[in-house]
Amino acid sequence: MFCVQFFSRHASVQKILAMSSVTRCTSKSVKHGRSVCLRSIFFNSVKYYPTTLVLGIETSCDDTAAAVVDDTGKILGEALHSQNEVHLKTGGIIPPVAQQLHRENIERIVKETLCVSGISLDELSAVATTVKPGLALSLGVGLEYSLKLVDKYKKPFIPIHHMEAHALTIRLINQVEFPFLVLLISGGHCILVVAQGVSDFLLLGQSVDIAPGDMLDKVARRLSLTKHPECCRMSGGKAIEYLAQQGNKLHYELRAPMRHHPNCNFSFSGLHSNATRIIMQKEKEEGLQEGHLMSCVTDIAAAVQHAVALHIAQRTHRAILFCIKSGILSQTNATLVVSGGVASNQYIRRALQIVTDATNFNLLCPPPRLCTDNGVMIAWNGIERMCAGLGVLHSTDGIRYEPKASLGIDISEQVGEVAIKVPSLEVSLNELATINL
Fold it and tell me: Where does the sequence pass through the membrane (predicted)?
């Protein structure tokens, strides 16, 4: 009912939805999918039947994605429809718009995935779908579609925690044994957890306000970077990273927050407020109204990115020291996994590399395409759960999506009580180059 009222009242939203055809170029075309499917059939006269095949479906935010993965970790097929261009035009994600675009594209994306993989729905071992956390309207589309599939084809259903999927993606491409430390940084989350098993996590810290990706997007919008000729088609975070390469990170002072809080929690709202204050001051100095490009955008972008990287690095450093001191992780062959959309930022990766070098940890990151939301990570999480015999449902009665959901057992208070002092690595971090990373 809400959606009907929303669309009837807002003609602008209908106009936005009409633009969705523009975004379809970011996904493989159905025609292309068919050609790949035909090649697959032609070149594979003897069909390969692995033990387990899982279809993963992801609609937690603004990407409609699907993939088929087998129990060896082979990605047999995948497809993704990005809504990025639509949301860039609106200055942010409008949930009913995202919901409608998911509805328009989910069946096509799943069919394309199956066609490319050469796998039929009857051959699947299970369907895995993100049910938490995320935008309620977006999660609902994926869940509704998936439940119809499993009911029609009598397949097991595996509900997936979005952040668990991000945390376990690294095991698809690297032989990483439990336990290991995970930093998940994205537009909606910033958490530090220890992965002790497929569904066994210890929460060390999380953002107490907004996520780093959200903060970077907000700063990009305030800087009107969609009007910048070099990054007008980039997401906010990507635009900040791109322009920061040309700027001086020390031109503006943005100190890392929570310096006197000896825990592993994060905070980015203060950084956002300070960046906004600097922007308003520079607009006044240059005689510009909000919405116009300033001459100093590269320096502001560099300063903001550096402050975010420094804050993330400092909190992660404390998490590493806590894990070693408490015996949760051994310092021998210990690993830090960094995943989520913001993990594709190369400057932040370099800051974390300095921390792991200083603590003798291995730093592992999925490739950028698997850091952002995708169907592969959902399918792989389904494989992991099937192999472990965890959360594989043969009845979907009572299944609901959960817009908010924590990950693991929260021991963040214990981390704060230990109050580990973090050795200063700020000199090394300040020497980070902002170009040619």
Answer: none
